[in-house]
Amino acid sequence: NSPTLCQLYVAAALAPLRSAWPECLIYHYMDDILFCQKQPFESAQIGYIADTLDYFGLPIAKDKIQMSWPWKYLGWLISDSVIRPQKLTISAKLATLHDAQRLLGDLQWVRPVLGLRNEDIAPLLPLLKGTDPAQPISVSPEQLQTLQAIADKINSSWTHRAMEHVPFAIFILHTGPHVNTVIAQWRDGQEGQEDKFYLIEWVFGAINPKKNIELTLEAMADLIKRARLRTVAITGEEPVSIHLPMAPAELEWALANSSPLQSSVLNWSGTLTTKFPSGKLGTLIKTQRWAGIPLRSERPLAEAVTVFTDAGGRTGKALVVWLREGNWHHEILEGSEGDSLQILELMAVCWAFNNWMSSRLNIVSDSLYVVGVVERIEDAAIRSAGRMRLVQLFRQLQQTIRQRSAPYCIIHISSHQLDKGL
């Protein structure tokens, strides 16, 4: 097609220049061309560029040549040390679905430089619901506040230009409901050098997890893979280090127990560390929710309360049974109309956690689904899509578990699979 042919033709015109100046970095998008080298360009070099491109029928207007900063290139404003977008107007006058689509598309373009996190733009996502581009939409007061906050961030945010001879690293941040990643260069002040941190680019995961319940370590692993690929794309090399928001003991535990984290660093020879820089980023790091070792035990707990949960889809009830001082006790929970068996089973487990908050607890369930949920939910992101009743129970269960001070164990008994026994 026409854009591809244009790109290929300009590349052919630039080939002699790339061959003559192998140390010069030459970017081009259609006929927008950026030349970068360590020393200022001499007039003879400018003439050579003009003559070469003119030979291919690509004359350069003198007023289009930018010799000093700030340089403007493909919507970016480049100074001697930082990069920021050129003036970007955020309009709160969104009348149709097409207006919302165009706005979110523009924001997606600048997110890696401005650090617009998933939680920053999440309130705007409901505006994208619909299939007709001309469909009228209305912006809520909360969404107006979000647009203003984004506009303020656009005017005050930037990233650094890469520094020569400073290695690239990946920093995993967990300062809100989502895990985010920064590709950066860090000179940590060793050997008498000044401690310097250069933020190059942000990398974000999906706003909504792919799974209903996504472990934080799974999200970190996914972002490590994304950031490694992006680092190679922009530098040609792997990062020298990956920094995770956890204590050294937790990192050791995570590497031993998380297959996704293990696979994210396959064939990589750098350093996996919990060390972070000081300064402004260090202050931000202190606000992080640090990944830790879960309270959940893989094995049944001794000297603990043991409760049994079950539910009946036909009756619409859930049951919790436990032994206390030689006597059996029970609690019957009434479900709501339309509650599935999974929801009833989750209700029973939530009730058990709520009633033994500070006690060591074993929960025995015959629902493989519920056991899987409890095993993953303590340190996980919850997908907002799906049945709201189920999402609410997930959040209630997660909040209850996070408030616990005592360990717990969830046990699956195959009571409905008689060929396997108990």
From TrEMBL:
Keywords: Endonuclease, Hydrolase, Nuclease, Nucleotidyltransferase, RNA-directed DNA polymerase, Transferase. Residues 1-78 form the Reverse transcriptase domain. Gene3D superfamilies: 3.30.70.270, Ribonuclease H-like superfamily/Ribonuclease H. GO terms for molecular function: RNA stem-loop binding; RNA-directed DNA polymerase activity; RNA-DNA hybrid ribonuclease activity. It is an enzyme of class 3 (hydrolase). The keyword Transferase applies. Residues 301-422 form the RNase H type-1 domain. Coiled coil: none annotated. Its EC number is 3.1.26.4. Pfam families: RNase_H, RVT_1, RVT_thumb. Belongs to the beta type-B retroviral polymerase family. HERV class-II K(HML-2) pol subfamily. This is ribonuclease H. It comes from Crypturellus soui. The gene is Hervk.
